[in-house]
Amino acid sequence: MPRDVFPPLLLLLFLSVFGASHACLLDPASAYRFTGAVCRLTYPAAVVLNEKTTKVIEAAFQHARYPSVKGEKSLLFIGTVIYGLDNLEIHNLSIGRSAFELHPGEGIALEIGNVSAVFRGTIQYGYGNWLVNIAHSIDFEIESQIDLGINPKLYCRDGKVAADTSDCYLHFHKLHLHLQGDKEPNWLRKVFTDFITFTVKLAIKGQICKEINKVANILADFIQDTAGQFLSYGGISVDIGVTAAPVINANYIESYHKGLTNYNNASAVINDSVFHPRQLTENRMLYFWISDQVLNPMFTAAHQDSRLQLNISGAELTELFKTNLSSAMPAFIRECLLESASPQLRVWSSSVPHLNTSISGTTVWGTASGELDCGTQGTPVLFFKTDVAIDITASYADKKLSLQGHPSEVFVLQAELSSQNQTVQLLDEDHEEFIREAVEKIGIPKVLSALEIELTRLLDKQGANLFDIVNPEVLPQDGFVLIQMDFGFPHHLLTQFLMKTLQ
Ligand SMILES: *[C@@H]1O[C@H](CO)[C@@H](O)[C@H](O)[C@H]1NC(C)=O
Ligand SMILES: *[C@@H]1O[C@H](CO)[C@@H](O)[C@H](O)[C@H]1NC(C)=O
Ligand SMILES: *[C@@H]1O[C@H](CO)[C@@H](O)[C@H](O)[C@H]1NC(C)=O
Ligand SMILES: *[C@@H]1O[C@H](CO)[C@@H](O)[C@H](O)[C@H]1NC(C)=O
Ligand SMILES: *[C@@H]1O[C@H](CO)[C@@H](O)[C@H](O)[C@H]1NC(C)=O
Ligand SMILES: *[C@@H]1O[C@H](CO)[C@@H](O)[C@H](O)[C@H]1NC(C)=O
Ligand SMILES: *[C@@H]1O[C@H](CO)[C@@H](O)[C@H](O)[C@H]1NC(C)=O
Ligand SMILES: *[C@@H]1O[C@H](CO)[C@@H](O)[C@H](O)[C@H]1NC(C)=O
Q1: Is 47 a residue whose pLDDT tops 80?
Q2: Mind listing the domains of the chain with CATH numbers?
Q3: Model-level pTM?
Q4: CA 271 to ligand 4 center in whole angstroms
C-alpha cells in the first residue's frame, strides 16, 4: 500500500522558492561548500501538498486538447470503412484518490487512482464499395475509469530544478461507448467499439501525459520567475541557481542553492560553506538553511546602494524623544525638537556592516551616522557618528517578522555642532553620553522596527502572507540561520495559478 500521498508539480513550488540561473555542479556532497542556501521539504509536507495534486491533475485533463483521429478498416461484404474522431471533450471528471512515495536517489512515484470521466465527441464515417458510398456522422459518449501513474524525476536544467514526467502511464478499468441513437447496424457498433477503445486510449494517454509535463513546466517557470523578482531589489539581485541536483531520500527532498549577491557587476563568492545535511532535522515540514555568507554580501550591497538610511521628521521625531533617558537632554536638542518648525533627523549606515551568527543570535556590527537639522535659519546642525554592535534574533508570527535587538556596544566616535557661520563645535562628555543613550534606547529600536516593516513587506511581496504558516522558528546556529516551519497549503494560491496560466 502506498504510504500516502504526493504532487511533484506542487513540490516544485517549494523547491523553486529560491529560483534560477546557470549550470549545476557535481554531486551534492562536493557541492556543499558552494551552497549558500538550502531548502528541505519533508514527507509530512509532501502529504499536505498531495491533497492539492488532484486539482492540478484535473486541470491537466480539462486543458488537454485531444487531436482528431482517423482510421480505416476493411470489412468483408461492406468494403473499406473510413472513420474519424472529432471534437473530443471531457466532462464530469472526478478523481478518487492520489498517493505517492519518495524513492531514494530516484524520484517520486505518484499514483492517481479512479479518475472517472466522460469523453464526448463525434465520429465521422463512410463506407461502401464501387456501388455504394455512404457518409455519416454520429455523436458518442465514452464512460471511463482510469488509473494514472507518474514517476517524475527531479533534475537540474540550466540551473533550475525541473521535473521530467515522461514516465507516465494510464490504465483503463472501464471504457464504455454509447452511441447516440440506435439506427446504426450492429456490425458498425462492433467496429466502432473496437476502434474507439483502442484509439481513444492512445489519444487520451498521449495528451494527458503531455499536458502534465506542460503544467509542470509552466508551474516551475511561474514560481521561479516570481522568486527571481522577489530576490532583486533595485540594483541588487541574488543568484539562487542550484549547485547540484536535488536529493531525494525516504524522508525528504532537499535542494541546494548558490545564494550569491550581485551588485554593480560584482558577484559574491561562496566556496567554503559550512553546510552539512545533519544540521537540519526531519520533523518539521519545511526548512530553509541560510548562511552568513549569503547575508553579509546582501547587507554590503544594501549599504553600498544607500538602502540603509532612515529619515524621521516632525511629530514622529518629537514623539520618539519622549522616551525616558537617564541623561539630560541638551538644550539645543530640546529647542530643536520643540521650537523649530520642521526638525529632521537623518540616520545612515556609514561603514560596511558585518554580521556573525552563533547559537545565541546574530551580531551585527556597523557604524551609524546621524544628522539633526532643525530646519530653521541660524540654528546649528548636530552631526554624530557611532560604532554599534547589536545582537539580533528574529521571529515570525501573525504574518509579521519581528526583530528582537539587544545593543551590546554603542560607542560615540564623533559628535559636533556646525553653525551657519561654518564653525564647528565639539560636544562635551555629557552631551556625548546623551547621544550614546539616545542611539541605544531610541535609535536602535526605531531602526529595527523600520527594518521589520521593510522585511515583512518584502516577504509579503513573495506571498509569505498568503501561506498558512504554523509555528515558524528562526534558529541561529554557528555561521547560519535555520528557519523551520509547518504549513497548510494555501488553496487560493493554487487556484490563482491555475486561473492565470491555464485559461
Ligand atoms: C454529468 O453529471 C451530471 C450530474 O451528475 C449529469 O446530469 C450529466 O448528465 C453528466 N454529464 C455527462 C456528460 O455524463
Ligand atoms: C473507484 O470508484 C468506484 C465508484 O466511484 C468505487 O466503487 C471503487 O471502489 C473505487 N475504487 C478504488 C480502488 O478506489
Ligand atoms: C556593468 O558592466 C557593464 C559592461 O561591462 C557596464 O556597461 C555597466 O556600466 C556596468 N554597471 C555598473 C553598475 O558598474
Ligand atoms: C575561494 O574564493 C576566494 C575568492 O575568490 C579565493 O581567494 C580562494 O582561494 C577560494 N578558496 C578555495 C578553497 O577555492
Ligand atoms: C533623507 O533626506 C535626505 C535629505 O533631506 C535625502 O537626500 C534622502 O534621499 C532621504 N532619504 C530617504 C530614505 O528618504
Ligand atoms: C519617565 O520618568 C518620569 C520620572 O522618572 C515618570 O514620571 C514618567 O512616567 C516616565 N515616563 C514614561 C513614559 O515612562
Ligand atoms: C558662530 O555662531 C555660533 C552660534 O551660532 C556663535 O556662538 C559663534 O560665536 C559664531 N562664531 C563666529 C566666528 O561668528
Ligand atoms: C562568529 O561566530 C562564530 C560562531 O559561529 C564564533 O566562533 C566567532 O568567534 C564569531 N566571530 C566574531 C568576530 O565574533
Answers
A1: no
A2: 8-18+44-228+496-502 (3.15.10.10), 308-464 (3.15.20.10)
A3: 0.76
A4: 6
